[in-house]
């Protein structure tokens, strides 16, 4: 392993590729919706893997392209940490696969964070923390931390700065 000590995983929601057959998606969604918690059936798991592994391009999956672009902007701001992306659903790598790869590379300090900023969502509040707990049990000697929840004042500042940049552009365009 290099001198880099920490790894960061940027977790996005994941999107369905536009060229994935509708019948495949409908079949998966029906199985997924009807499951009442617990483990996915073999058929659901196979369909999920087919969807996750579906070939992607920026045209067929603009969400994945957007997350990768965000990661490219974030990477230089993280000092000596490595940065990987992962997806909660529909796209690969999964959170588990990304963490396994990082552990296999010898990292012992992993921070997971999500692009889902607001509290109350099932993914960021429930599913990802459950995944993190499973990973901690799977890798007991590895520090796996979930950087959640976001400080809403910081998120508000980010949004205000963004909104204000548009206000200034409108003012400058009018003048």
Describe the protein.
The chain has 175 residues and is α/β, with parallel strands linked by helices. The protein has one domain (6-19, 54-174): Rossmann fold, CATH 3.40.50.1400. The protein is 50% helix and 13% strand. It has helices at 22-34, 42-52, 62-74, 95-104, 122-138, 152-174, and strands at residues 6-12, 82-87, 109-114, 143-146. The chain has a four-stranded parallel beta sheet, sandwiched between helices. The longest helix has 23 residues, at 152-174. The N and C termini lie far apart (56 Å). The model has no long low-confidence stretch (mean pLDDT 92).
Report the count of strand segments. 4
| Cα Rg | 18 Å
User: Could you say what the CATH topology is called?
Assistant: Rossmann fold
Which CATH architecture? 3-Layer(aba) Sandwich
Q: Please give the alpha-carbon distance between the first and last residues.
A: 56 Å
Q: What fraction strand?
A: 5-15%
Topology summary:
Blueprint: E1 6-12, H1 22-34, H2 42-52, H3 62-74, E2 82-87, H4 95-104, E3 109-114, H5 122-138, E4 143-146, H6 152-174
Parallel strand pairs: 1-2, 1-3, 3-4
Helix pairs in contact: 1-2
List keywords for this structure.
4 strands, 4-stranded parallel sheet, globular, 175 residues, alpha/beta
Give the structure's gist in a few sentences.
This protein is of the alpha/beta class and 175 residues long. Helix content is 50%, strand content 13%.
